[in-house]
Amino acid sequence: MISFEFIDVEVPELSSELFSFWLSNVALEESKLPGEIALIFCSDEHLLAMNQQYLDHDYYTDIITFDYSEDAEISGDLFISIDRVYDNASENTITREVELRRVCVHGVLHLCGYGDKSDNESRLMRAKEDYYLDKYVSRET
Question: Could you tell me where the DSSP H helices lie in the chain?
Answer without folding.
Answer: 16-29, 44-55, 82-91, 96-111, 119-135
